[in-house]
Amino acid sequence: MKMKALLLSSYGRCIWRIAVLSFTIALPMAAADSPNRRLTPGDVLSVMERVADWQLAHPSAHPATDWTQGAGDAGMLALAGISGDPKYRDALLAMGEANGWKPGPRMHHADDLAVGQAYAGLYFLYRDPKMIAPLRARLEAILSAPPEVQSLDFHQPYDQVSQLWSWCDSLFMAPPVWMQLFAATGDERYLDFAVKNWWRTTDYLYDPVEHLYFRDSTYFDRREANGKKIFWSRGNGWVMAGLVRMLQLLPANHPSRARFQQLFQAMAETILTAQQPDGLWHSSLLDPQSYPLKETSGSGFYAYALAWGVNQGLLEGARFEPVIRKAWTALTSCVDAEGKLTHVQPIGSDPKTFADDSTEVYGVGAFLLAGSELYRMAVFENAKPLAVQVTNPAHLYRYCETVELSLSRLARRGLRSTNLAVMDGLASRILDSQIYGSESGQAPDTFLFQADLAPGESRTYYIMDASALAAVPQPIVKTYARQIGERYRDMAWESDRIAHRMYHQDLIPAEGTVSSGVDVWVKSTRALVINKWYKNGDYHNDRGEGLDDYRVGRSRGCGGLGIWDGHTYYVSSNYRSARIITTGPVRSEFELTYDAWEAGKRKISETKRIRIDAGSNMTRAESMFAGDQLPRFEIAIGIAQRPGNGVIARNQEEGWMSYWQPADRDRGNIGCAIVLPNKIEEFATESATLPKLTQADLTTPSDEGLPPVANLLAIAPAQAGKPFLYYLGAGWSKSGDFPEETDWENYVRQFVARLRTPLKVTLENE
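RE: above sequence
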């Protein structure tokens, strides 16, 4: 199938046509010499930041977990995804921390979930489980104790009817959170709940003739002054924005997807015709003359939804773009010189007369959401980005999966820049990416970004010259590697999940430690810790972030190797030199060299290249050996075994071995694993290379626990002059990721499955 056909069939998300649109947006007269001047990404971002800055300087008085704040935070998150200033992301992080990441107090009320959209959005940036833990607990509580109320009739007492999604605004407040938690966890119960209850509300409140939603059932028989049915603008704006957020996360093969798209398109047609000459939508959609005041909150949601629909190819650009241009011009004309968004209808079940300078945080949220899609349009008109389709062929969820592209491959498709950025295919967010040269002294040749993919899912991303953007967001650095000059030149590396180190020859005279084993630093934080822990020098004690509780000594630790002749194990000394290839934000990579060591009557030397990617507990290790009359040999990769009842799991054909060591006092369990690209030849256990231990040694833990008693070995053939590839990794029971041994073993098995079924990456016109 040709690339274009693939893209157009993928989730209805493709914005293929945008790359060839001529998109001209009129600016308000105050902002340009001509009202027809083409709008640039900088124009859009500038006004978005002015509005957001005013809001940050004038915080809303509503409770922090209120739905009003939730809508504002959703817009602020959209801005954070495109702005070069991290203060918007920092403000959201501060909000989440201050709230304890908790939703509002009412268990079933949709409004009290709305703030969760920002929590979940931040989770997708940082992958910190604490950001969604209270949300997930709330959803589980709802599933375990559903409301006893069955009717959506709004004439019931409010404390009863509000337990269901019985008013149209609720379709923005709650369903997107359920969908985000589904996307974050793969738990399809959340998906099913969101879809089922969306259609339950729609079947009750949606008018199939007018293609609009009644606010609630009390409006079924009421009429406007002109005799028309009453459909409030902002209420239907909530629905349209909620539809966008549902469609962004609904699987392509879901039975309801076509129905969601049809609903979105039908509502868009009605909204298209309801726009007023001033470019906005008045408070009543079918009787705008009775409500002549400008209104920006509903209008902001419409601009957001319609622009998203055009960007995704769901709405015809020729018909909808003029409406979007006109709406954005009108919206920006309602921003005063200080950045205050005006003409926002106050809270209420129906419109009231309000002052021209009326504002509310939810109106700002709608404005920022609209701006994010206008920004996308402007970027695409200027950038002509390259579409990249990423497909997950496996029957498992893949989170934080690295997409790697050579710059030469991109250049063949006409993208020759080494200053690149990548935009999500579903929204305007600029993803963290990385360019580096894979060889010493070589020009950049590799481009990286990361993707989340459901089983069998295809997603489209857009790579472009970063100069087409108004700004590049500050990346969240999730990997790091450094030679530690202040501590015997340890070579330390980490991801946001785990940290390791290996020892330089300087450690031998200082402490007498001769080891090429791999140390483990376990973490309960997603933050990078290497520099902080080395500076404090107190990393054998857990100060709330993790610790070094892994004793290597002369063992192989977690993934060191040696030469195995069937009886004897020959291991190298500490590494001699290190060279950093790249460090963060997505990948860190470096190279170690070892002096030659005796392997029987021969000598062998090793150069080892190590790399770790964001979101991974596993490190890739590739060794190149040179041997004196030793062209072929066997490599044994080891894991240190501890005293006590640890759990050994392994699969020879699948090529992996895992060890879940016994708990060290109250410090939890550490799991280690090694994985080979192919089968493991055999397993063995050896202890001859380790010091002899007394009974006191076996029962008296040091500050790193009990000593190694043996090396568990996985053996595979190697050849001098050819790379030997394997993976090593570790996890901790107190990290929140692997509370039980089975969780760690499942992670290893899924890592193997992902390794065996790599992502498929296809470029436009390739």
